[in-house]
Design a protein that fits this description.
477 residues; mainly alpha; 2 domains; 19 helices
Length: 477
Amino acid sequence: MVFTEEVFLFYFLPLVLAVYYLLPYDKNPKPGKSRFWLRNLWLTLMGYAFYAWFEPWFVLIMMFTNVFDYFSGIALGRDGLSSRKRRIVLTLSMCVNLGLLAYFKYGIFTQVNLNRILEVFGNSGFQVYRIVFPIGISFYTFHSMSYVIDVYRGEKPVKSFADFSCFVSLFPQLVAGPILRYNILSEQFYSRVHSLPLFAKGIIIFCLGFGMKVLLANPVGQVADAVFEAATPHTFAAWWGLTAYAFQIYFDFNGYSLMAMGLGHMFGFNLIRNFNAPYHSDSITDFWKRWHISLSSWLREYLYIPLGGNRKGETRTYINLALVMLLGGLWHGAQWQFLVWGAIHGVFLGIERWAGKKPFYGNLPRYVRVGITLFIVWIAWVFFRADDLTHAWHYLACLFGLATPDGFSSLLAARIYTPFAYLAMGLCGFMVYQPLQAQDFGQKVRWKTFAIAFALFLLGVCMMYTQAFNPFLYFQF
């Protein structure tokens, strides 16, 4: 089930909202007990139902994670537990979470590469065991890990399993983020505000995200797929397809994040902002302050700083930075091109840090700095989108005129240079570079704002019924 399909919009969401607001809440809860424990339980059950829609047995993995980390938190919260035992509980929890993630997400990758190593030494290798990848496992694993780490650091553990499970399985952010950190959201599970203005703001933000996904990401995504699937496109077509992909991944993921934020508001939650005009960045450092903010903050809080951050000397700082970016790349997918994508960003982040947290082109006018930054980001997107490293290198050759176009270039042109494609690309370019961001537009609830958002939603619904192409790119992570 995805946010941009009929069953979610007209059946699942209305049912969840109706029952949620009909359920009572405790006006005078006992100490340590949530006012909304019954509503939290309902959201938990609906989170499981939402997740089971993709594949029912996936729920068993998520439920196991929930139960194991809930009791890990209880153990860590016990008074008088020695430091040694606390470290054992934390280590065990991290091993279980990362072990499940490694098995399901990186099992095939590991087997394939072991076979390649064996072939180098003359061994025929072994048959690769196929492993089904549970959708969104990277996201809910990071949610659950953040809870255990925060309790280890001194946060109070959740007493109610319904409250904790609600945190992990909250369906607006379950399969594609934003990545929630328990220490930011913990109080909202005990006490949060339900108000008509917040609910209306949620509707506006959801409608804006819905329109962003259906009206912008999907049309340009078809252009990107056509070009990347071509054998050897012309240079201009390659740049056209790469730009289409850069627009697609931004409006796809930002649209989903906005819909998640809007849904959170409808249930009284304030989820964190995940994007802040990333294509306005004038350096790679600036880009990572604006792109997938929840991931970059999670990696900084739970990986970079525990590794020592910048507190253990200059050399260690660069090693930590490189390691975090490589792991961040690998988090996105179990393929070598994601490591290259992370390495590209890591190299430029290191260079900028060495230069005093500014790029080597830092003295140029801002519009030039933005252009150079986008060029670097665009080139890195090739590795993010390509099927494998061979495909990525070939596509780069096409970008720079180093490959001879094939005989199907005219057929490709007929697919990607259409009036509708031009309109979609133009709208994307305008929306990227106009100064007002969707989150800011939806902050003030006014009739004019509501009317614009609702009109975009209706147009999006009409478009939704005509589209066979409706992927969510970050579901694969």
